[in-house]
Automatic annotation (TrEMBL):
The lineage of its organism: Bacteria, Pseudomonadati, Pseudomonadota, Betaproteobacteria, Burkholderiales. PANTHER family: PROTEIN-EXPORT MEMBRANE PROTEIN SECG. Residues 97-152 are annotated as: Disordered. Residues 97-137 have a biased composition (Low complexity). The keyword Membrane applies. It is a multi-pass membrane protein. This is Protein-export membrane protein SecG. The chain crosses the membrane at residues 54-76. Coiled coil: none annotated.
Amino acid sequence: MNTFYNLVVVVQVLSALIIIGLVLLQHGKGADMGAAFGSGASGSLFGASGSSNFMSKSTGVAAAIFFASTLALAYFSSDRDVAVSGGVMERAAPVTGPAAIPSTSTAPAAPVDPSLPTAPAATAPAAPAATPDAVPAAPAPAPAAPATEVPK
């Protein structure tokens, strides 16, 4: 199987190089316009009235070989006998140390010595009660001129 895979890779690379060479050697569509009006032979396989020449047909054959080898390589690469897994993250090693994500379970708090005095709880100022018809405060207006320019 490995030998066949290597053979398909070689066929694909050779067909790609052949396609590149054939495309670079071909005339453009505009180059054949003069030949269509009688200014010379166009080098067609079937004469001046032929629909395509030897180079364009060879390019089509090389492209078909390239696509077939690409499909064969895709088939060989997807032919695996492994079970479907959840992805890369399931195979990753767990991180320990200070970079690890803390777990949801917390350590029990240290026992409190009842003979020690406790600090009073800090109280926050109470927020004003919101009324149903209260309008929220508007944001501060943007400055009229940039800070780097002096107003005139």
